[in-house]
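Quick start: read one record
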Amino acid sequence: MSARLQPGDTLVIATHNSGKLREIEAMLSPWRLRLIAAGDLGLPEPDETGATFEDNARLKAVAAAEASGMPALGDDSGLAVEALGGQPGIYSARWAGSGRDRDFAHAMRTVEEKLRAVAATTAEKRRAKFVAVVSYAEPTGEPLTFRGEVAGTLVWPPRGERGFGYDPMFVPDGEQRTFGEIAPSDKDVMSHRARAIAAFAAKVLA
């Protein structure tokens, strides 16, 4: 299959999250696409009504592609904690509040309180994974979805000022540092989003 996008082609990034946008732009830079954020086009954020990461990523991508008339890449991601039955999962952002005033320090405290409530105080009881799904949609046709995961352990208190969201309390397997302590250039290679973007690139860009 030939690449659907070539260097110089425009791709709308269907996110209003500045942290996600920075990561996606960095990960896609080798392909020299013309990337435009949905916010820069004045596109509204669609309600995340899906039951899975895949549902919500497709919803965002399709909405942006149809509204802009250009190919779009949507993203949905979150933290799934084993001891909490996979919570917060697709509700990861909502645990931090709504709108642009989300408080992830509060969200991390909520995770920690729930872990303590179920006596998950040792490393083996604090296993979690970050999940990212990206969906590629054109103005017409069926969207494509790609999933990436990275497993790790949750720590408390949070460490590091880098990253965003739950990064400061997540230590990926094989590392001693949290995603909040790891340099963005290193995280962009090992993260759940990096794995999803790599799968997308192999299918759509390579």
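The mean pLDDT is 94.
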